[in-house]
Amino acid sequence: MEVCYQLPVLPLDRPVPKHVLSRRGAISFSSSSSLFGAPDPRQLSQRRGAISYDSSDQTALYIRMLARLGCGSASASAGPERRVHRLLSFQRYLHSSRLLRGVPQQIPLHILDEAYTGQARCMLEKVGNWNFDIFLFDKLTNGNSLITLTFHLLNQYGLVELFQLDMVKLWRFLVMVQEDYHSDNPYHNAVHAADVTQAMYCYLQEPMLAKSLTSYDILLGLLAAATHDLGHPGVNQPFLIKTGHYLATLYRNTSVLENHHWKSAVGLLRETGLFSHLPAEDSLNLERELGSLILATDISRQNGYLSRFRIHLDQENLFLSNASHRHFILQMALKCADICNPCRPWELSKQWSERVTEEFFQQGDIEKKHKLEVSPFCDRQKNTVGNIQIGFMTYVAEPLFAEWARFSDTRLSQTMLGHMGLNKASWGGLQQEPTPVSEEREPSRAGTDTEDAAARRNGNTATAAGGPSSKEIPQGSRES
Q: What are the tens digits of pLDDT across the range 138-180?
């Protein structure tokens, strides 16, 4: 019996139900499919929500199996229930769910507009404002900021219609993306992803990009921003390596987190079949270019990208009519969006600084608990938020945004630099006052220490939001 279903209209005054948030696809493995090749449409029609992988693709296979089995849930109390939910197929929940049963198949493009109310709608009308308060927006959408914002932007650009995206698949993909961000991470969570997506939209609106980027470029940029930290475990790469975590082994200690984010995003794209209607070659290229953008956020590659950017600007040979040059600019835009917190107004920037520093300290707490050497900037007894932020702005953020301002000398660029200068001065002023010990050591070594700080603050940093009580040494046991 063929089952027809439609995306439910979810009001903003209540959270997305667990049975909607949980992943529903059954996994099957086919030796006839490849890692990036599009799945056979006949298989998708036979197994709604299913995903096929080549048996030789150990990376994708391993990730999805571990996710399905719920290895080491981040929350001990919710672990058993979460694992059971992940093992249930989408078809079973489809039949058992009141929300998904008997709903007409046709879904209007304005489906989210019907759910927008009051201030949430008002905020979306100003989504291109650099002062956009993502924390307030997340409250107004009842914790669904990433879903709501990303859908709005895709629809605003007309990408849903242009790329003939199925509304049910798109909504399901966004729900699964938001779910796969660990809400117990103070920093690397879905709110951070929503913030980066909003910043990316601001950059896409800049004159240099707005007049040159194609619809495909914009689609790629928004998807990369929304998924760039997908499944972040809450600890950094060195921690994963020294504890023998399965992700470090899987990616051979190279861009471990970024590879994990990319492959997780590809897995969700294929599980939902969002681009299954596209030719196989187009789907392959999209997934590869998505990976290229996400991998660019690896802070250990910062100097390489920055040097290349400077050379282009010095030689004035960036031509945005060239597809490869546009892709490079998208990489730089995503890098800026990923670490733009110091460039936000103080009220927002301070919150992000406190959140990311708390992640460092939680990792340090775990290292102390298990008698491991405490990573730099992770000892809450020896470090302060102000020192961490001043060092990060001086050695990482300022050089990047100075070059971005050379490329796009606009009011936004000057505003970002202005905020960063004021924020740096504010942290310096707070350093002069007696404050509780809460952050990082002063960056006395501008080389090694600064690189460590940068690696922690960006994609190579993480800590579990649940603190020591919610995380043991994640030696292949924590849910990725």
A: 999 999 999 999 999 999 999 999 999 999 999 999 999 999 9
Residues 195-213 as b or e (16 or more Cβ within 10 Å = b): bbbbbbbbbbebeebeeeb
Residue 38 tokens read as 């599009």
Residues contacting 253, CB < 8 A, separation 6+: 237, 241
Separation between Cα atoms, residue 107 and residue 89, nearest integer Å: 23
3-class secondary structure, 455: helix
Question: How far is residue 144's CA from residue 432's CA, in Å, rounded to a whole number?
Answer: 39
Of 103, 97, 79, 150, which is closest to residue 4 (Cα–Cα)? 103
Nearest to 172 by CA among 309, 6, 295: 6
The three-class DSSP label of residue 66 is helix
Give residue 91's pLDDT. 37
Q: Render the burial of 253-284: b for 16+ CB within 10 Å, e for the rest.
A: eebbbbbbbbbbbbbbbbbbbbbbbeebeebb
* pLDDT recorded at residue 456: 52
User: Is 188 annotated in the active site?
Assistant: yes
How many residues are present in the chain? 480
- Tell me what percent of the residues of the chain surpass a pLDDT of 70: 66
Q: Please identify which of the residues 19, 95, 182, 188 carries the catalytic annotation.
A: 188
**pTM exceeds cut of 0.70:** yes
DSSP assignment of 187-208? SSSHHHHHHHHHHHHHHHTSHH
| 233-255 pLDDT, tens digit each | 999 999 999 999 999 999 999 99
Three-state secondary-structure class, residue 185: coil
